Input
Amino acid sequence: MLSDARIRPLVKLLYVAVVLILYNQITEILAGFGQNPVDPGSAEWRLRLFGVLATRAGWIVVADALLFAAVIRLDDRRGLRVLGWFNLVLGLAAAGCVAFLAHDGLVLRNSVPGQVIGLAVLRSGVPLALVMVIALYSGWGSIRKSRKPDWGGRNRPTTPLFTDTVRAESPRRRVDD
Output
């Protein structure tokens, strides 16, 4: 087993990998919209934006998982809390994207013949909805875990600070052979 001193610099390299992944994905998103005029009021433009975001969502989740691996391995509670808040914001943003996507799909449904819009909404909505669920769940869980230590089993604190009442420790049962 590698010692903590030898593995720590390697774990910190995960931060560099996350920055590289995020830089690559953000530049890809921006390059896709460099040729077209920005028109947030247009439902077609928003539908195209959500399609690009949905195709890049997988890499954002991979970068997020790498960050979680680094933060947990380095036992960084503050980093876990920051990552949790970031994930909550990301999950709420993804929820907003899914809501706008559903609205724009309903608006454009009658203007485009066939089921092209329905398939485009489904193709973009499913990855964004999965990102929403993953981000909200991991954000809420990491914020909860970063606030207090995880006490389990018999070593739970009995002070009124952590519990509403003081409880007596149960005596251990003896096993007679």
Remarks:
- Residues 88 and 137 are 8 Å apart (CA to CA).
- The longest helix spans residues 77-108.
